[in-house]
């Protein structure tokens, strides 16, 4: 069964976005995966199609209404796919979580807007809050595209060489080693000799050492 992504959003025209191009786009055309963008506003019942209201207790911004979002979720989420809410307060997205999602039948993603989403619908519909970083976006759509990009690229058949998805940063708990290609010399800088030696054991050892070095320098938290 193809991987199915359902995205609940106020801006459905943002999808599939860049995922309609290159490897992900060709996989989409082949039917290796599918995406549907659901307009949350379609589930508002008042004449103004209102999806938000002022925050209880006062404060800035608006809050996405729980009843409207619940109806939108209920219209498509009648299966066992995980239900994610893209949120800066969520658990950080990791490559391990990406792989777990890719190994499933699909995913339901809610794109937040405004000041946030009513906590009651998060609890009532079992939404898992996920963050792609410690920064704020204008909405959950770019975050949803980022998550789907990470997932789709490792679906079976999407990448020509499946090893491409294995020898990457975070897959082995480390950042990825440096890469080189021809020409042999670029502005006086040469490709490390070991990489052209033909000694595969030595190459793997060098890559491992370089990955450890980079991780220690840039992401020491990964080594704890």
Plain-language structure description:
The protein is of the alpha/beta class and 224 residues long. It is built from 6 helices and 10 strands, in the order βαβββαβαββαβαββα. It has a 5-stranded parallel beta sheet with strand order 2-1-6-5-8, sandwiched between helices. A 3-stranded mixed beta sheet has the order 3-4-7. A two-stranded antiparallel sheet has the order 9-10. α3 packs across α5. It catalyses: guanosine(37) in tRNA + S-adenosyl-L-methionine = N(1)-methylguanosine(37) in tRNA + S-adenosyl-L-homocysteine + H(+). Pfam families: tRNA_m1G_MT (PF01746).
Helix-strand layout with pairing:
Layout: E1 3-9, H1 22-30, E2 33-39, E3 52-53, E4 63-64, H2 66-76, E5 83-92, H3 95-102, E6 106-111, E7 116-117, H4 119-124, E8 128-131, H5 141-152, E9 185-186, E10 189-190, H6 200-218
Parallel strand pairs: 1-2, 1-6, 4-7, 5-6, 5-8
Antiparallel strand pairs: 3-4, 9-10
Helix pairs in contact: 3-5
Keywords:
alpha/beta, Alpha/beta knot, Trp Operon Repressor, Chain A, five-stranded parallel sheet, three-stranded mixed sheet, 10 strands, 20% strand
Provide a short characterization of the protein structure.
By secondary structure, the chain is α/β, with parallel strands linked by helices. It has helices at 22-30, 66-76, 95-102, 119-124, 141-152, 200-218; strands spanning 3-9, 33-39, 52-53, 63-64, 83-92, 106-111, 116-117, 128-131, 185-186, 189-190.
């Amino acid at each position: 069964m193809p991987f199915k992504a359902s995205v609940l959003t106020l801006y459905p025209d943002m999808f599939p976005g860049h995922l309609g191009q290159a490897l992900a786009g060709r996989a989409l055309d082949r039917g290796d995966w599918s995406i549907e963008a659901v307009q949350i506003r379609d589930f508002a019942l008042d004449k103004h199609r209102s999806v938000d209201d002022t925050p209880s207790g006062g404060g800035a911004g608006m809050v996405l209404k729980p009843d409207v979002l619940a109806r939108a979720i209920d219209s498509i989420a009648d299966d066992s796919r995980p239900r994610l809410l893209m949120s800066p307060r969520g658990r950080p997205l990791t490559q391990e979580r990406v792989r777990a999602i890719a190994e499933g039948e699909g995913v339901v993603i809610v794109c937040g807007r405004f000041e946030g989403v009513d906590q009651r619908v998060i609890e009532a519909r079992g939404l898992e809050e996920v963050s792609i970083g410690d920064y704020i976006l204008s909405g959950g759509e770019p975050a949803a595209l980022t998550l789907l990009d990470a997932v789709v690229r490792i679906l079976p058949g999407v990448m020509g060489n499946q090893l491409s998805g294995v020898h990457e940063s975070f897959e082995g708990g480390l950042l990825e080693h440096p890469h080189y290609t021809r020409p042999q010399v670029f502005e006086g800088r040469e490709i490390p000799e070991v990489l052209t030696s033909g000694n595969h054991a030595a190459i793997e050892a060098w890559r491992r050492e370089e990955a450890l070095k980079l991780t220690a320098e840039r992401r020491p938290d990964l080594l704890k």
